[in-house]
Amino acid sequence: MDYALNLQAFILLHYLSTMNYCEEVILAIPH
Q1: Would you state the pLDDT for residue 2?
Q2: pLDDT tens-digit readout, 1-31
Q3: Taking the chain, what is the end-to-end CA distance rounded to the nearest angstrom?
Q4: CA atoms of 12 and 9, how far apart (whole Å)
Q5: In which domain, by residue range, is 4 found?
Q6: The organism sits in which domain of life (predicted)?
Q7: pTM of the model
Q8: C-alpha to C-alpha distance for 10 and 18, rounded to whole angstroms
């Protein structure tokens, strides 16, 4: 496996999960 490709995939997954986390936090805050 190519290390750079693994790193890119890991960063992409981390970025997506961070966005999902932020979205959940924003939805959880009462408006």
Answers
A1: 82
A2: 688 999 999 999 999 999 888 888 888 888 6
A3: 46
A4: 5
A5: 1-31
A6: Bacteria
A7: 0.56
A8: 12
Q: How many CB atoms lie within 10 A of CB 14?
A: 10
Q: Give Cα 2 distance to the centre of its chain.
A: 21
Residue count (the chain) = 31
Residue type, 22: C
The residue assigned the tokens 């924003």 is 26
Phi and psi at residue 24, to the nearest 5°: -65, -40
Domain count, the chain: 1
The token pair at 3 is 């290390």
Query: Could you give the CA distance from residue 11 to residue 23 in angstroms, rounded to a whole number?
Result: 18
Tokens 């959940």: give the residue. 24
